[in-house]
Amino acid sequence: MSQETTYAGIRGEWQAIIAPLAAKPPGLEHLEPFRVKLETALERAVDITKQQAALAATRQELTKELKVLMADGQRVAAVLRKALKQQLGPKSEELTAFQVQPFRGRKAKNVVAKPAPGPESSVPPAEQTAR
């Protein structure tokens, strides 16, 4: 017989052991306390499995609720940021107290001067290669 590794498989093995022993076959009466102990463990394992399933469902519901709550909170925070900019002004340094970056203008672009055209040779390029 293969070794079960899943909880469901192990519980199935336990049930397969308990069922024949519950009939109290002659000569195996001394195993009754162990059967009762295994049966109690099986019942408790089934109860815990049901609780886990219920908690998983609850966790999923709470995750959905949290997702909606976070989206609503983000929208409200965006509205507050805009209202602060409107009230205090977009350039106000007071905005930094609310973790809103004030508008400080654009940085000037670095204008790179184009190199002045160098002295051009009076000889056309085709003639230069012929020399």
Question: Overview of this structure, please?
Answer:
This protein has one domain. Helix 1 (7-22) packs antiparallel against helix 2. 0% of the residues are buried. It is elongated. The chain is 60% helix and 0% strand. The protein has 131 residues and is mainly α.
Write a short abstract of this structure.
The chain has three helices and no strands. With 131 residues, it is mostly helical.
Principal-axes geometry comes out as elongated
Q: Radius of gyration over alpha carbons?
A: 40 Å
The overall pLDDT average reads: 86
> How much strand content do the residues show?
under 5%
Q: Residue share in helices?
A: 55-70%
Total helices: the number is: 3
Structural category is: mainly alpha
Number of domains as seen in the coordinates? 1
List the uncertain runs: none
Oligomer: single chain
The tally of beta strands, per DSSP, is 0
Order of helices and strands: HHH
Q: Quick one: biggest sheet? A: none
Span of the ends, CA to CA = 96 Å
From the structure above, extract its key features:
131 residues, mainly alpha, 3 helices
Secondary-structure blueprint of this entry?
Blueprint: H1 7-22, H2 32-88, H3 125-130
